[in-house]
Amino acid sequence: xxxxxxxDVIKAxxxxxxxxxxxxxxxxxxAEELAEAQAWIASADALLDAxxxxxxxxxxxxxxxxxxxxSEEDDEDVEAGPVIS
Length: 85
Prior knowledge:
It is a single chain. The chain has about 80 residues and is an all-alpha fold. Helix content is about 70%, strand content about 0%. It contains 4 helices and no strands. The protein has helices spanning about 5-15, 20-25, 30-50, 55-80.
């Protein structure tokens, strides 16, 4: 499987800025590694309980990037303030 393309990244993580897409693609990761990183984010405890060793290399890099994206999205939700109807 080849390196990630822009379309692969958008398909996997949704619409993100060009810098983030370049950062993800810059890891040299494959779509399989991106999927593995997303699996770790979704269920790290279950994977560790199943005896899977903690992620390293490109998967670890992707986890760091994806976690940062989620953190920024959470910050944006908080900064929006209350909805007044």
